[in-house]
Amino acid sequence: MKEIGYVGVAHIHTPGFVDRLNKRSDFHVKAVWDKKPERAQITAEKLSTQTVADLSDILGDDEIEAVVICSETDDHEELVEKATAAGKHLFVEKPLGISGPAAYRMANAIDKAGVIFQTGHFMRGQAPHLFIKQQIEAGTLGKITRVRHSNVHNGSIGHWFESGWFEDGWMWMTDTKQAGVGGFGDLGAHSIDILMWLFGDIARVTAQIDRAFDHYDCDEYGESLIRFENGIIGTMAAGWVDVLRPMPVMVAGTEGTIYLDQNNVYFKSDHVEGADGTTPWTDLPEALPHAFELFLDALQGEDVPLITAQEMAARAAVVDAFYEADKTSSWVQPKTNTES
Asked: What is the pTM of this model?
């Protein structure tokens, strides 16, 4: 059984990760640390483990091979710096950094340390996205011209962030000083990861970002226009103020189209028998385990697909560009590692 540490528990996904850890017989969380001891205590009780008052008790423990970092985003850089210096493998909840430059600094430190890294972008493992990637690589869509991805929910409408495991719920996620972004960046991070994973680097972006209500002091939704390095034109929507998520994915090419609607995949291509675009396409690849499970599997020595720290930093730079584009009403080129 491998020992891991939980470093920062503030993120709204902590309950899900705790549940996954409790279901794994090959891992034991030896200790939990958080800058707010009461949060650490609540989480430790759910993991049937202990808390530590000093982070060094986890990072200096040779039995602990890896740490899960689910702190406020503005604490990531300090925690990642200390964890990589201690040689710990890392799961860091998205986004990697409070900004693109911070994310690139962390990515460079992670690469230099040579540790296993993973983050919470789970959408890559979903069957429709795996299918789209397969068909792009097979060339059944011809030249890709336009793409769209939407990732929305009703979190702001439903006041999701006021309640949770802790006294202040998950409210820090609505404070851009701690989270770096609001609803658009929070959910858009997943969409931009999928878009860049499928279609490559981004040349420039523009965006309009806004809020619908006054109960959270941050943006709640937005829409962006994207030009990829390869010429593809993309659009992306994200936010916390939607009651439905119609057609979350669409890929249009000169010889085919794929889109997702009401959890059904529709596929049109003359290169594939039966792909007439009128009935749901059910011949999909098997979905991968959740990104967190893949991290645990990697710690056990399994050869599984992971997301690199440099990929995460590049996505953070694009999110920065979205917000700068909204602020300046212009097109913005995302910064690269060398520019940061």
From this structure: 0.96
**In the chain, what are the domain boundaries?**
2-118, 123-287
Give just the sign of the alpha carbon dihedral 244, 127, 185, 12.
positive
In degrees rounded to 5, what are phi and psi of residue 186? -60, -55
Domain 2-118 has CATH 3.40.50.720: yes
Nearest partner of 325 among 184, 198, 200, 176, judged by Cα: 184
Question: H or E segment at 237?
Answer: strand 233-239
Q: What is the pLDDT along the chain (340 residues), one digit of tens a residue?
A: 999 999 999 999 999 999 999 999 999 999 999 999 999 999 999 999 999 999 999 999 999 999 999 999 999 999 999 999 999 999 999 999 999 999 999 999 999 999 999 999 999 999 999 999 999 999 999 999 999 999 999 999 999 999 999 999 999 999 999 999 999 999 999 999 999 999 999 999 999 999 999 999 999 999 999 999 999 999 999 999 999 988 899 999 999 999 999 889 999 999 999 999 999 999 999 999 999 999 999 999 999 999 999 999 999 999 999 999 999 999 999 999 875 5
d(CA 128, CA 143): 19
In a 10 Å sphere around its CB, with 0-12 CB exposed, 13-18 middle and 19+ buried, how is residue 142 labelled? middle
CATH C-level class of 123-287: alpha beta
